[in-house]
Amino acid sequence: MNTNVVVNLDHEAARRRLILALGRGKAGKTLWSRWLVETMRARGVSPVAADADWSTPGLSRHDENAVRLGNESRAHTNWWKTVLANGDELGGRPVVVDFSLDASLVRNVDPEGTNFAERYAPRGFDVTKVFFFAPDIGDVATFTNVGGGVTAASTLLVLNEGAIGSRKSDRFDAVLAHPAVREAIGKGASVVRMPELRVDQERVSEIVDFTSFAEGEGGEAKPVSFDRHAVRTWLGRMEEAFAPFGAELALG
């Protein structure tokens, strides 16, 4: 513990933020990662965008500069060396990871029984884990398997209001009442509700930059105009929802 304190005091300016977006498919990881990377860039921050899904590309479909995990043998080992490298090109930049739930990759970062924040602190990283939930108790099982045991104060539990599932106002009650989630909150994890983006998924995939799309010129056909308004509304709600966690998300 004393060693970590010395690292913080002596190298505070050089520390980097490692942000891991975790959850099952369709839980909102890629959409949120896109938003975070775009928001960072809009504020003058140059993040390392990383796609850790070797089977189904997520963030790398929308960001041609994203580092992507290959499917060759031991690719996860080489990939982490690239993402966590502190050379001239990547040094000092925060890292945003759209994470795969491949068990071997997850455990390479979060070995069972190891506190991930303490593991990466001596390497110069402050770690934020962002875990996504649809209104499905099955997501809690995934959380328990790949994250519940290493929850720290820098963990966000994101309830995705746009995920497939029940639309009732109490749709996340079962998730929040689960012992694993309650324990995580007791350890300092914060709950955040991610607003729904009311735009067709095909359109979302076509959007290159959310802010540019939202601020585009008017005069289009009504469907496009409605979509621009929906994106503007969503961006405002995302800013409001995640503003309290600027430090944890390297947003200043």
Structural account:
By secondary structure, the chain is of the alpha/beta class. 39% of the residues lie in helices and 15% in strands. It has eleven helices and seven strands. Strands 3-2-4-1-5-6-7 form a seven-stranded parallel β-sheet, with helices on both faces. Mean pLDDT is 80; it is low at 1-13.
The number of helices is 11
Model regions low in confidence, pLDDT < 50 over at least 5 residues? 1-13
Mean pLDDT: 80
- Estimate percent helicity: 25-40%
| Order of adjacent strands in the largest pleated sheet | 3-2-4-1-5-6-7
Structural class: alpha/beta
Radius of gyration: 18 Å
* Helix/strand order: HEHEEHEHHEHEHHEHHH
Instruction: Report the sheet with the most strands, covering strand number, pairing sense and barrel closure.
Output: 7 strands, parallel
User: Looking at the structure, what is the overall shape?
Assistant: globular
User: How many runs of DSSP E, i.e. beta strands?
Assistant: 7
Amount of beta strand: 15-25%
